[in-house]
Specification:
Shape: globular
CATH class of the largest domain: Alpha Beta
Bound molecules: adenosine-5'-diphosphate, magnesium ion
CATH superfamily of the largest domain: P-loop containing nucleotide triphosphate hydrolases
Radius of gyration: 24 Å
Number of strands: 8
Number of domains: 3
Strand order of the largest sheet: 2-3-4-1-5
Largest sheet: 5 strands, parallel
CATH architecture of the largest domain: 3-Layer(aba) Sandwich
Order of helices and strands: HEHEHHHEHHEHEHHHHHHEHHEEH
Helix content: 40-55%
Oligomer: single chain
Distance between the termini: 37 Å
Length: about 400
């Protein structure tokens, strides 16, 4: 098992999650679609790829598209068609497909600029394109389609022009119409690091997703985490003892595989580069370094990008919360936002809304009426960055 810290893991590098994979595959193979709405680096893409592997093994067709690199609605359709053409059931000879492609090929490609004669514009033809494309999908063939980072594309569509809101709603309705075809054997997995629920709720289009069940990946149990650290140690010739693995897990408490991987990488670095002895002190040492590094910058950026004008209140709430391991009361959170300039009625309303979003987005959990960081590691990182 390789020590991979960032990109999705596949094959032997995918550790654990057996019951979750069984459960998720069970849901898909009995006719459900799945959305994995978890923060970045929880392990969604790796998990979805594992499900695609199983589907392939069972003889399904599969498609996997990372929407994070798609820059427009048209570019999405181009990419989707490119993938569909590789499928076993894509029949060059079908009249519907011939008609679709003849329209599609006349479109000015999304990556060409300037006037190209004789080519049709996307805007004027997109309704037809969507409609025809929906009609050519063969719903009798088992096919698993994975769209990674769906909400990133939704934001691209939303912000493209003044019709963004209408376009994003139409797009989500179109996707929904593909999912709800009766007895369809096409199944869908979406991943979203950016709260999809927050997105659809904010734009009043939650109904476009109400047919699809979400699954939130779990953190690893302490035993599973110790097992993974020992496994990494064995495969990478680092003498991680059970005691050291337990120390690491004790510090992390909330164990995402990514956290285990970066802790392991740090142990490996300390031992082999800094010549630190591998003993019971090393886990503290590794942890102290990690919280000063940039592994969690995406958690800061997400707030900057997704919370709009409310971000200053979010930073105020989190700054307060990261200072108290046991958690902060709602009243104190409200005080923190009035201190940054809100009047009391607005503060109550905003804190209620932001707590909901921050829980959804994986920052906070609620325990007996107190709010605290879900991950001690993220909390200590936050403290280093914004308080110390
Ligand atoms: N099942 C797993 N086994 C081992 N490491 C994992 C696993 N899932 C995730 N990881 C770790 O998390 C990192 C991010 O995984 P990824 O699937 O890309 O997450 P996401 O798609 O949620 O951002 C990987 O580089 C790896 O370090
Ligand atoms: Mg991913």
């Amino acid at each position: 098992m390789n020590n991979i810290t960032g990109p999705p893991v596949e094959g032997d590098n995918f550790y654990g999650r057996e019951p979750e994979i069984d459960y998720a595959w069970g849901r898909i193979s009995t006719g459900n679609n799945l959305i994995l709405p978890s923060p970045r680096r929880v392990g969604k893409t790796s998990f979805a790829l594992k499900l695609l592997d199983i589907a392939k093994r069972e003889g399904w067709d599969t498609i996997s598209i990372n929407l994070e690199r798609i820059t427009s609605e048209q570019a999405f359709i181009e990419r989707f068609v490119e993938e569909l053409r590789k499928l076993s059931w894509w029949d060059q000879a079908s009249t519907q497909i011939i008609n679709f492609l003849s329209l599609f090929k006349q479109l000015k490609p999304s990556f060409k600029y300037g006037d190209v004669e004789m080519e049709l514009s996307w805007e004027e033809n997109k309704i037809d394109i969507y409609k025809q494309l929906a009609d050519i999908l063969d719903h009798r063939k088992p096919t698993l389609i994975f769209f990674d980072e769906l909400t990133v594309l939704l934001n691209v569509i939303l912000n493209a022009d003044e019709n963004g809101k209408r376009n994003v709603s139409a797009f989500l309705h179109w996707l929904r119409s593909l999912r709800i075809v009766g007895r369809s054997r096409i199944k869908w997995i979406y991943c979203s690091s950016v709260g999809i629920e927050n997105f659809t709720h904010q734009h009043g289009i939650s109904d476009t997703m109400n047919d699809i069940s979400d699954y939130r990946l779990k953190s690893f149990s302490h035993n599973e985490s110790i097992g993974m650290l020992l496994n990494l140690g064995r495969s990478n010739n680092l003498d991680v003892t059970k005691e050291i693995a337990k120390d690491v897990v004790g510090l992390l408490d909330y164990c995402l595989p990514f956290f285990l991987q970066i802790m392991f990488d740090k142990l490996n670095y300390l031992v082999n580069i800094e010549n630190v002895p591998i003993d019971r002190k090393i886990s503290q040492y590794a942890y102290a370094q990690i919280i000063t590094e940039n592994h969690f910058n995406t958690w800061i950026e997400r707030i900057e990008n997704q919370y709009g004008y409310q971000k200053k209140y979010v930073f105020a709430l989190l700054k307060l919360t990261c200072q108290d391991k046991s958690g902060v009361s709602r009243a104190n959170l409200i005080n923190a936002t009035t201190a940054s300039g809100l009047d009391i009625d607005d503060a109550e309303e905003i804190v209620r809304k932001l707590i909901y979003m921050l829980k959804n987005d994986g920052y906070l959990v609620e325990d007996n009426g107190l709010y605290r960081f879900r991950s001690p590691l993220l909390r200590d990182f936050w403290f280093e960055r914004f308080v110390r």
